[in-house]
Amino acid sequence: MTVFRLAGDASHALAWAVLLLILCCSRSAAGLSLRTQELLLLVYAWRYQDLAWNFLSLYNWCTKLAYLSLAVCVVSACHCVPALRRTRNYSTDLRPLSTLLLLVLPSLLLGYATSMDRTSPFENLWASSLYLEAVAAVPQLVLIVREGSSRSAVSHYIFLLALYRAFYLGNWAQRYRREPYYWQPQAWTSGAVQTLLYVPFFIVY
């Protein structure tokens, strides 16, 4: 456990807390891409299947459960709470079919192609979740470009997510220096791509 990992997890958790605060206080989903939230939920569902049997540490298990639960809450609220449904950006958000064809299916194919064990559904989905997380912010970026602006409250949430990814790059670099057998090219590649996609958010912020 490195200081970068702890800082990254803290930024990640704070991002979800800020998002829930935005939705609860403003009762508006304006400026927020529901497609991005659905993709993040799919990422966690694919990656955290091992919640039922993998108890590496209490911290690790609770963190996984918290991210998955928070994502379920946000997506459910955007779909079910009338005030949030009315303020969703239907015209500027990516369509479900476009999201499936352009982001989800390529992630599944890349995950299968680079999986450590192609006979294991868990390994295939775990690898796919890395690539899907890398592009999950694309619908949010598209929404900002189409609308020509970013809601300030949503920008804080996006900034914290970008910060989380930046801290994880530091975590990987530190682990690579300290651990002789640490080798995760899939995570490094997808993380680098995700960080590059967040650069426009940093500029806007």
The quaternary organization reads as single chain
Estimate nothing, just give the exact number of structural domains.
Answer: 1
Report, as a whole number of angstroms, the end-to-end distance. 30 Å
Name the beta content range. Answer: under 5%
Order of helices and strands: HHHHHHHHH
Structural class: mainly alpha
Give the mean pLDDT.
Answer: 87
Mass-distribution shape: globular
Q: Residue ranges: pLDDT <50 for 5 or more in a row?
A: none
Please outline the major beta sheet: none
Total strand segments: 0
Individual helix count: 9
Radius of gyration: 17 Å
Percent in helix: over 70%
Q: Would you give an account of this structure?
A:
The protein has one domain (3-204). Helices cover 77% and strands 0% of the residues. It has helices spanning 3-26, 34-47, 58-80, 82-86, 96-114, 121-135, 138-147, 152-178, 185-204. The longest helix has 27 residues, at 152-178.
Keywords:
single chain; 205 residues; mainly alpha; 0% strand
Brief rundown of the structure:
The chain has 205 residues and is mostly helical. The protein has helices at 3-26, 34-47, 58-80, 82-86, 96-114, 121-135, 138-147, 152-178, 185-204. It has one domain.
Fold topology:
Blueprint: H1 3-26, H2 34-47, H3 58-80, H4 82-86, H5 96-114, H6 121-135, H7 138-147, H8 152-178, H9 185-204
